[in-house]
Design goal:
345 residues; mainly alpha; three-stranded mixed β-sheet; 3 strands
C-alpha cells in the first residue's frame, strides 16, 4: 500500500540535491537530501520484506534481486555509455583513470573509489564523471546486507529455539505450538537495526571529533553513512509489527494521537532547507548536527504519514516521483558538460 506523503519527500530530496549539484555555492549542504532518501529506502525495504514474510512466511530473495537489477542496471549502463560519449567534449581531467571510474560505477564501489582517491565534493566534484553513483553504491551494499541479516537472525533464533523452550515467531507466523511463548524475530530485528544505526553514528561522530578519518571517508564510507539506512530499517520493522503497534482492541497506538503528517513534512522540509543553506561539506557540524537531525525528522515524518487516515498529495507529485531515479542517474554527465562549456566561455 502506497504511503501518501513519501512521494513529496522523494521529490523534495532530489530537488535540493540537484540545486546543490548545479548551484553548490547557493545551497552548500543540499546533499542533506541524500539522508532523507537513505531513511526512506531503509524503511521501505524492510517494510516490504516483512510484509512478504507476513503474507507467505518466507522471502523470495531471487525475486528481490531481480527487481533491483531490472530497475537499476539498465539505467546505469545507459548512463555510463552517455558519460563515455560526453567525456570527449569536456576537460581532459575527467578522463584520468576513466577505466577505473567505469569499473567502480558498474561494480557499485564508487564510494570507496572516491575515498581511495581523496574524493571531495568541494574540488569541482573531483573531476569524476560518475561521482554521483556513490549514493547508489551504498544503496546496493544495503540491499546485499539486508537479506544476509534476515537469514542470520532467523538462523540464530532458530538455534536458540532448539536449545530453549520458546517457539520462534517469524512475522505473524509462529513455528511450533508451545504455550510457553515465542521469540519474536521482529523484536530482534528492531534491536539489531537500532544497534547498527547507533554504531554507524558513533563511528561518524568519533571520526569527526577526533579527526580519525578524512572528510571523504566520513562522507562516502559505508561505516559512517549507513546510519540512516539502518534507522529507516528499524522503523520499517517497528511499523510492520501489528502486535506491538496495536492495543488489546486492535487499535494502533499511533492513532490514539492526532496525526499531523503535513506539519511533520513541513517541519522536515523547512529544517532541511535551513541546514542546507547554513552548513557545507567541510563543516564539522554538518556531520555532528545536520545529519542526525534530518534523519530523526525524517523518521517522525514517515511515522506521521503512516498513522494518518488521509494525506492529500497532488497527482503531479506522484507522477514526478516516478522519474526521480532517472533524473538523478542521468543529470550528472550533462551537468559536467554544462560546467565545462561555461568554464570555456
Amino acid at each position: 500500500m502506497r504511503i501518501k506523503g513519501l512521494d513529496s519527500l522523494r521529490v523534495f530530496s532530489i530537488l535540493i540535491i540537484l540545486i546543490y549539484h548545479f548551484f553548490g555555492n547557493f545551497m552548500p549542504a543540499g546533499f542533506l537530501g541524500v539522508n532523507i532518501l537513505f531513511v526512506m529506502s531503509g524503511f521501505l525495504i524492510m517494510r516490504n520484506f516483512l510484509h512478504e514474510i507476513d503474507q507467505s512466511g518466507n522471502i523470495d530473495i531471487r525475486k528481490f534481486y531481480h527487481k533491483r537489477f531490472v530497475r537499476i542496471m539498465p539505467a546505469i549502463l545507459l548512463m555510463v555509455i552517455i558519460g563515455l560519449i560526453l567525456v570527449n567534449f569536456v576537460s581532459k581531467d575527467y578522463t584520468q583513470g576513466l577505466p577505473q571510474q567505469v569499473g567502480a560505477t558498474v561494480s557499485f564501489t564508487t564510494n570507496w573509489y572516491e575515498i581511495v582517491n581523496g574524493g571531495s565534493y568541494e574540488a569541482q566534484f573531483i573531476k569524476h564523471i560518475f561521482l554521483h553513483t556513490w549514493f547508489l553504491s551504498l544503496e546496493i551494499h544495503f540491499y546485499i546486507l539486508i537479506p544476509i541479516i534476515l537469514i542470520l537472525t532467523f538462523i540464530t533464533l532458530l538455534i536458540y529455539k532448539k536449545h530453549g523452550t520458546r517457539n520462534l515467531k517469524v512475522g505473524d507466523n509462529e513455528l511450533g505450538n508451545s504455550p510457553v511463548g515465542c521469540i519474536n524475530m521482529k523484536f530482534a530485528l528492531k534491536l539489531l537495526f537500532a544497534a547498527l544505526a547507533l554504531v554507524s553514528y558513533a563511528i561518524l561522530y568519533f571520526s569527526v571529533i577526533r579527526g580519525t578519518f578524512s572528510t571523504a571517508f566520513n562522507y562516502f564510507s559505508d561505516f559512517t553513512r549507513m546510519g540512516p539506512l539502518f534507522l529507516g530499517a528499524a522503523l520499517g520493522t517497528f511499523m510492520s509489527d501489528k502486535t506491538e503497534m496495536a492495543d488489546a482492541n486492535g487499535k494502533s497506538y499511533l492513532q490514539k494521537f492526532k496525526p499531523m503528517p503535513m506539519t511533520a513534512l513541513v517541519v522536515l522540509i523547512v529544517v532541511t532547507l535551513f541546514l542546507s543553506f547554513k552548513f557545507s561539506y567541510t563543516d564539522k557540524n554538518t556531520y555532528l548536527i545536520a545529519f542526525i537531525l534530518v534523519d530523526v525528522l525524517t523518521i517522525l515524518a514517515i511515522m506521521q504519514c503512516c498513522a494518518a487516515e488521509e494525506v492529500k498529495e497532488p497527482e503531479f507529485i506522484n507522477t514526478i516521483s516516478k522519474y526521480t531515479y532517472g533524473v538523478y542517474i542521468f543529470h550528472w554527465p550533462f551537468l559536467i558538460m554544462i560546467s565545462s562549456l561555461t568554464d570555456s566561455l
